[in-house]
Design brief:
The chain is built from 13 helices and nine strands. By secondary structure, the chain is of the alpha/beta class. The longest helix is centred in the N-terminal third of the chain and has 14 residues, at 41-54. The radius of gyration is 21 Å and the shape is globular.
Length: 331
């Protein structure tokens, strides 16, 4: 591609060299905002899109307040196999609370957790595991929940990689987030996972403020405990942020239609469509897990998203072909 001057853009020095490099040309890592991305269509599309929407002289220019990017969490920013990280947290909580509930030893789905029956839990699906979520995360103050989540993340390790879950975030996505933020994008996480669980690590791990996290939330109450008011987590859901509720909650919490979206499953499809259907230029990125050696290879729950991505020309990101490195460096 040919380069032309990009006036008034503070971050131009970061990405112009990358955009100007040919698809097979090496790029100086000191000037490359996406060093963990292999040269190819997705990387080029990202650099081109950010250049266009950030350039006041370009027809596709988007004012900074409208430059909003949304990312799914599980499987898009962080490993989700063999079990979503938040479920690992819930399982640990159930085991810790089990002495107070002897009936769980013979009652599903608690029995499966206590026996570490992962196949049985996976076969149950989300709805049948609902009581685990309730008992593992409700009937405590928000402060207690945060403390429990932080303790889990500080000690929990992935069963296959034997690394803390907070190290199993995708390095290319961290680079993309930083690049977008440097280009005056506001970056949000829009996840079906629990909003407060993700908030417990979003700032430290992703560099995304907790107020920029949108997720499923349990019912809250206000209680006076030891003379002080506290938010109390009650059983039941206030909001489930999945499927068609993702665009609804984007409107509720952001009030603007994003122009960039990243997801990895059919559960993200409504969010991806919502972004793509806007009047402004948009970029849609669909992550494909196809690297069994460095991560996992699976395509379940992605058929509809993959089909629509092919029809609409969305960018298909292959972990095997587009990621030079998958996980963040060891801390």
């Amino acid at each position: 591609m040919r380069c032309r001057p990009l006036p008034y853009i503070a971050v131009a020095c970061v990405w112009v060299l990358s955009a100007c490099a040919g698809s097979d040309d090496p790029v100086d890592a000191r000037a490359d905002p996406l060093p963990s991305w292999i040269a190819g269509a997705p990387r080029s599309a990202i650099l081109d899109f950010v250049a266009r929407v950030s350039d006041p002289a370009h027809a596709d220019f988007v004012p900074a307040p409208e430059r909003i990017a949304v990312f799914d969490n599980d499987g898009t920013l962080i490993v989700e196999r063999p079990t979503i990280v938040q479920f690992e947290f819930v399982y640990q909580r159930i085991k810790a609370l089990a002495p107070e509930h002897p009936e769980w030893a013979t009652t599903q789905p608690f029995k499966a957790v206590l026996e570490d029956d992962r196949e049985g839990l996976a076969a149950m699906g989300f709805r049948k595991r609902g009581d685990l979520v309730t008992y593992g995360q409700a009937n405590i103050t928000q402060e207690t929940f945060y403390a429990a989540a932080e303790a889990f993340l500080a000690t929990g390790r992935h069963v296959r990689f034997d690394r803390p879950y907070t190290e199993l975030v995708y390095q290319p996505m961290l680079e993309l987030i930083r690049f977008l933020q440097a280009s005056d994008f506001r970056v949000f996480i829009v996840s079906g996972g629990g909003i407060e669980f993700i908030r417990s690590f979003s700032e430290h791990i992703y560099g995304i403020n907790r107020e920029n996290v949108i997720g499923s939330s349990m019912k809250y109450g206000l209680r006076e405990i030891d003379g002080q008011l506290s938010i109390y987590r009650q059983p039941g859901w206030q909001s489930l942020n999945a499927g068609r509720f993702k665009p609804i909650n984007i409107q509720l919490h952001i009030g603007r239609r994003p122009i960039l979206a990243v997801g990895n499953s059919d559960g993200d499809l409504d969010m991806l469509r919502f972004v793509a259907d806007g009047k402004r230029p948009s970029l849609i990125l669909l992550v494909h897990h196809d690297d069994a050696e460095r991560e996992y290879a699976y395509a379940d729950e992605t058929a509809a998203a993959r089909e629509l991505a092919a029809q609409r020309g969305w960018q298909h990101i292959s972990m095997a072909d587009d990621f030079r490195a998958v996980f963040a460096a060891r801390q």
